[in-house]
Fold O-antigen ligase family protein.
Amino acid sequence: MNLVGFFRDSSLEPRFWSAYLLYSTLIFLVLSINQNYDDLSRAFYFIGVLPAILLLLLNEGNRRVVKQDITFWLIVLLLTSLYLTVYWGREELSGDVIRRYSRWFFITLVFATAMYFYGFHKLNELKVHYYILQLSAAIAAVSAIAIYFAEARYPQRLVGMGLLDHPILGSGVLIMVWVMSLLGANLDNKKDIISTVLSLTAVSFFVFLSQSRGPIIATIILWLGIIWLIKTMKARVLVGFFSTFVALGLYLFLDLGSVIQSMIERGSSYRFDIWSATLSNMNEYFWFGIGVATDFSHTQTGMAVAASVGNIVIDHPHNLFLSMWVYGGIIPVLLLSLVFCYIFFRALQLRGKKRDSVLIIFFTVLALSITDTYKLISSPQEIWLIFWLPIGVLCGYLNAQKRVLV
């Protein structure tokens, strides 16, 4: 969809606030991954994304959309159930804790709602969405890599600017921003194929140098997905050869064997020990959880996890589904599972490129959720981009596609 068509489409009333949401979201995403001043990206959230969605909800048609969609209410229930655990958690309930989590709950819910309407109004199909996300991801990756080598930090783990300043979550943010551009790409077009492959190459280089296994697996999924999305066999073969050539070239030129050896020596980073110890203490959190405001390391489960990995302090279970269970009990983990199941089975009902692109985004979210995503209620930071950005957009977009199919 092009921008002219977007403004001519009468189904997008009120058009001005939809456009305001589009550009506010894009500016927020670009600033989040390309600069170190968190307050600047937060400012664009509060003066852009938040008022845009509140004003969109003044429209009766938009309110009707959320009233009738079960997925939206699953998201609301998931966030609400997590927020309520603050009140029966293990930490002392001070006024500051209540205010902080109340604020985080509200702004996270607003962001998830904004991303829902971003998808419902198909803003993720616009070319401006595609080009800005691909370009900003590539610029963030290339600039971080350039600084990394200029400061002679190789073969240490690479981190970038803004929300890319963590070797695991940062890689996840960069991957997610890139993959969310896919529904705006036309991979029957040579120009889009070239820009997609080049930007993914930059992102892949960043992710590999970050030495994070989960994001690396997600990147492999992306390459396989892009090759699948390209319909002509000639272009598929060329992209396959290009990716292989780049991988071999980097391996030989940078002596990446030392990086690979470093990842091997880290083993599973205690993931299986953490999960096993967490599940072994299920009686502490099974029904109602420990509370999202509770310090995990101070609980019976947290101390068991620390003992299992050599008395190293671990601050969360390093798995999204386990985290939901530990912090919120059985209800949030069931709600989270329902959201994932809904997206997957609704995606299967689509046809062609849309189905394939949605599934690629879905499996990327799943790959990044297995090891490190947690809590889901926060101020504007990595979790928003790794989880609520794709989940909100996919739920809204699939609702819009459902209406088309009906």
About this structure: The two ends are 21 Å apart (CA to CA). Residues 24 and 268 are 39 Å apart (CA to CA). The chain has one domain: 3-266+317-405.
